[in-house]
Automatic annotation (TrEMBL):
It comes from Roseicella aquatilis. Pfam families: ABC2_membrane_3. Its main location: membrane. One of its GO terms (cellular component) is plasma membrane. Residues 129-366 form the ABC transmembrane type-2 domain. This is ABC transporter permease. One of its GO terms (molecular function) is ABC-type transporter activity. Belongs to the ABC-2 integral membrane protein family. The chain crosses the membrane at residues 20-38, 171-197, 217-241, 253-274, 280-298, 310-334, 340-360. Keywords: Cell membrane, Membrane, Transmembrane, Transmembrane helix, Transport. InterPro entries: ABC-2_transporter_component (IPR051449), ABC2_TM (IPR013525), ABC2_TM_bact-type (IPR047817).
Length: 372
């Protein structure tokens, strides 16, 4: 009971210390509100307002129909362009797409020939180039089929049904992924800053003369910072991701927060470990760039985990962040329950326990060096 009491009151001290740090509080408020909202609404992976020009050398009703089919919000109003201006416009980056409809296109199509439409694409606009090319192909094929009364339709009708995100709204995805990444970022920074703050303020020496052990000091820092991150995650998920961004939450929020709390054993232990290595906040920031940013980028949140090389997948499976992203997506997007995500919960807990043991050992050594 005495150990629990020490851990409790040392944790309360950490919360008071955090409350007295306006810079960290402002950073937390920004990271769990405006940063998530701006990333969800500002980074779009859909086709929006793509610039397109048309070199219409046919001047037929069909070519006019195809031009009129390129409508907002996918495309800006098409611009007529001359043949000698195409290369110059593409070099200047004025248009993402330039369609070249050849002479006698409609006549050759009616005659049963297979005329070609050239589509010039500026691939430096990578997202719009990839998605827009598919959109253009579908729109032009539909207009040609409609012009001929549907006689050019394929023999097989493909009907696609998009699950979990019917309108393919990228903000639903980026909002949740921004929240997940910020959980890791804040957990590492707060735990690491707590250790460095003790060293810089000289309060670590005060703790060493008190009847507390290094284990109690470390656990107090972990539970207090973990509590703050968990509460901030719940509020941000509901008010920012769900209410402000409009992303639906398919699964159980308590189950997600329980998994987040489990993951925070790993993330705060990483922060504690980095805090014992770094001697100042700038050093902690450099270590953060080397360790946490690659961990976030390769956890499966920014790109599909299955598309990575096999060796890299094996390495990243040893990090709890990968399993955190997996069960967070399963719960929040697909409404998965504990019976589905328990393997990820178990992996997160086991990895967190190992990292926690390493961090606590390192923290004891740092305390012993400080005493010596």
């Amino acid at each position: 009971m005495r150990r629990l009491s020490n851990i409790l009151w040392l944790g309360v001290k950490e919360l008071r210390s955090l409350a007295a740090d306006p810079v960290l509080l402002l950073f937390m408020a920004y990271a769990f509100s405006l940063a998530i909202y701006s990333q969800a609404t500002g980074l779009s992976y859909e086709l929006r307002n793509a610039s397109v020009a048309i070199l219409d050398e046919d001047r037929s009703p069909l070519s006019a129909r195809m031009r009129d089919a390129l409508l907002p919000p996918y495309f800006k109003p098409p611009v007529e362009i001359a043949a000698d201006a195409v290369d110059r416009a593409m070099d200047a980056g004025r248009f993402t797409f330039v369609l070249d409809i050849p002479p006698h296109f409609q006549r050759d199509l009616i005659a049963g020939h297979r005329p070609e439409i050239q589509v010039n694409i500026d691939a430096t606009a990578m997202t719009q180039a990839g998605i827009g090319a598919s959109y253009l192909q579908q729109i032009l094929a539909q207009e040609i089929a409609a012009f001929f009364g549907g006689n050019t339709a394929d023999p097989v009708a493909l009907r696609m049904r998009t699950a979990f995100n019917p309108n393919s709204e990228s903000s639903w995805f980026t909002g949740v992924m921004a929240l997940i990444n910020n959980v890791t970022m804040l957990a590492v920074l707060l735990a690491g800053a707590a250790v460095i703050r003790e060293r810089e303020h000289g309060t670590l020496d005060h703790l060493l003369v008190m009847p507390v052990t290094p284990l109690e000091i470390a656990l107090a820092k972990l539970w207090s910072n973990g509590l703050v991150i968990t509460l901030a995650t719940g509020l941000s998920l509901w008010f920012v991701v769900h209410r402000a961004v409009g992303a639906p939450i398919a699964g159980s929020i308590p189950l997600f927060l329980a998994g987040t709390a489990l993951y925070l054993f790993f993330a705060t232990a990483i922060g504690l470990l980095l805090g014992t290595v770094a001697r100042s906040m700038p050093q902690l920031g450099l270590l953060f760039i080397l360790v946490v940013l690659p961990m976030n980028m390769l956890s499966g949140g920014n790109s599909p985990f299955e598309s990575m090389p096999f060796a890299l997948r094996v390495v990243m499976s040893a990090f709890a962040s990968t399993h955190f992203v997996a069960f967070a997506q399963a719960i929040l997007y697909r409404g998965a329950g504990l019976e589905i995500v328990w393997p990820q919960f178990l992996a997160t807990g086991l990895i967190g326990a190992v990292v926690m043991a390493v961090a606590l050992r390192r923290f004891r050594l740092a305390i012993a060096q400080a005493v010596g």
